[in-house]
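Internal ticket - ligand job 361, nicotinamide-adenine-dinucleotide:
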Amino acid sequence: MKFKTEIKVIDGNPDLSFLLSENKKLFVTDENIFALKSLEKFFKNFSVLNKINSGNTQASLYSNKNNALIVIPAGEKYKTIDTVLAIIKAALAFSLTRKDIFTAIGGGVITDLTAFASSIYKRGAKVEFVSTTLLGMCDAAIGGKTGCDFEDYKNIAGTFFPADRLYVFPEFVKSLSDKEYISGLAEVIKTALLFDKKLFNLLETQKEKVLSRDSEVIYKMISLCVKAKTKIVKKDLTEKKERMLLNLGHTFGHALESRAGLGVLTHGECVAWGTCRALDLSQKLGLCSYDYFERVKKVSASYGYETDVVHKAFTDSKAILETMKNDKKNSSSKIRVILQRGLCKNIITEIEDEKILEALI
Ligand SMILES: NC(=O)c1ccc[n+]([C@@H]2O[C@H](COP(=O)([O-])OP(=O)(O)OC[C@H]3O[C@@H](n4cnc5c(N)ncnc54)[C@H](O)[C@@H]3O)[C@@H](O)[C@H]2O)c1
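stdout (structure tokens):
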């Protein structure tokens, strides 16, 4: 399977009217996005039709001449197989064929769910995305990973199914809550460290503009992230090699995220902390300089992330190590981590427990 998404980064206020089609289409969004002022005009094209119930998911169905719209409850809590089936029920209600299009308008939850539903609907229909969160634009909407959660397992059911088209309107990030914006920013910092010195320089020198979501700066920042992620997934869609690099900070971060209790810390807060741990380990192993580790820590702290070795949300380092050992990304008894020799000098490696623990205490 090849990565074949056509991506457009579009400046200015989002006007989605061009997406309405003479052919059948199913739009999928969540309640928060449905209520956005910036999309009021677009959603006015639809009239309410009925409810769709699927297990614990209650969604609302709308339609206009040829297009339908399903609005699902917002949040990770609804990233379930029930919601995937609600989307499929809506597609069936509108007799969508494999040639028709599912259009997701939303963050990572909506794009993952919609792409999963479209990938299994009649063995694969078309899907396109309008990404509306910083995390979605820079990460989730690019690269073809789809899925939903099940019981306590995140993204445990899913497929590789790249969208046909992705529309990125950086202006959408202006209505994100600070919490969501800062969470997405951790992936931007990670991308800069891995692949883009200019982007890291922008994050170091233009903090005020990044935080105030200056239009020019967010456009540049998001465009650079889109370019970097696209380049990697074109080389390695199914994460056999280079794509693993995108897990910088994630092995440590995921362990903290689950130990702190899902939802206590944002994904971004955990990734930022985990990235500092990966670089602390890198300098302890003599791979990168102490100065580089300190430089990254300083930038991370300047955006408000916890950089101390013991995170106050969960202080038991040995328990974090245990969780890291269970991470599905390990291929042997050692723990796979992404380390660095310096800015944009990346290493994929496996490390013994004792060494990992040294970076956690
Ligand atoms: N497929 C991948 O490669 C990949 C990569 C990273 C993350 N993910 C997945 O992405 C999900 C997280 O994505 P997310 O952070 O975008 O979460 P999300 O989709 O839940 O969006 C976060 C919140 O912001 C709201 N929102 C969305 N756009 C908005 C806007 N423009 N203005 C105001 N509010 C808005 C949403 O309603 C939601 O409440 C996780 O489920 C994760 O597993 C997938």
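Auto-summary: DSSP finds 14 helices and twelve strands in the chain. Residues 30, 32-33, 36, 74-76, 79, 106-110, 112, 132-133, 135-136, 139-140, 143, 145, 154-155, 172, 175-176, 180 surround nicotinamide-adenine-dinucleotide (CB under 6 Å).
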